């Protein structure tokens, strides 16, 4: 992989795929009528925030390292609603990968290929249930929601 493609992967593709993933969680939260939704992209100091209705999107200084979506509502979520919110993140990556694959078939290039594979990776890895250093995958959250009585 060239240095150019690696830089694109880290600085452009990973944040785009993370944003797609977190927007999936935000849409899932909206679907189950969350009162407030906050989406954070990256770590570090807050650089800027955009608010649209009940969604607040915050970009942090190290924007290419992870993301998280928080949603709240006055009445507690049901188990099935937590599962939907959680599932929508990987699902959005899967849908994005499918769309990017179709575009890549018409206009093949390395950027689209990396964008496709990173979305596939995020969709698949996030559905594997595991926990590491206090963080857990969406698959772990779904597994816990299903297995809880």
From TrEMBL:
GO terms for cellular component: membrane. Its cofactor is Zn(2+). The keyword Nucleotide-binding does not apply. GO terms for molecular function: metal ion binding; metallopeptidase activity. Residues 16-104 form the Peptidase M50 domain. The chain crosses the membrane at residues 82-104, 110-128. It is a multi-pass membrane protein. GO terms for biological process: proteolysis. Keywords: Hydrolase, Membrane, Metal-binding, Metalloprotease, Protease, Transmembrane, Transmembrane helix, Zinc. It comes from the Bacteria. Its main location: membrane. It is found in: Membrane. Belongs to the peptidase M50B family. This is Membrane-associated protease RseP (Regulator of RpoE activity). It comes from Oceanobacillus polygoni.
């Amino acid at each position: 992989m060239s240095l150019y493609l690696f830089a694109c992967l880290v600085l452009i593709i990973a944040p785009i795929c993370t944003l797609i993933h977190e927007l999936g969680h935000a849409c899932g939260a909206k679907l189950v009528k969350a009162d407030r939704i906050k989406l954070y992209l990256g770590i570090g100091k807050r650089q800027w925030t955009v608010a649209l209705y009940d969604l607040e999107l915050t970009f942090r200084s190290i924007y290419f390292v992870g993301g998280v979506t928080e949603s709240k509502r006055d009445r507690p979520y049901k188990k099935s609603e937590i599962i939907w919110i959680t599932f929508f993140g990987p699902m959005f990556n899967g849908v994005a990968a499918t769309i990017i694959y179709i575009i890549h078939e018409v206009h093949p290039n390395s950027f689209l290929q990396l964008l496709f594979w990173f979305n596939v990776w995020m969709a698949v890895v996030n559905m594997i249930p595991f926990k590491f250093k206090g963080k857990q995958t969406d698959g772990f959250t779904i597994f816990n929601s299903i297995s809880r009585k």
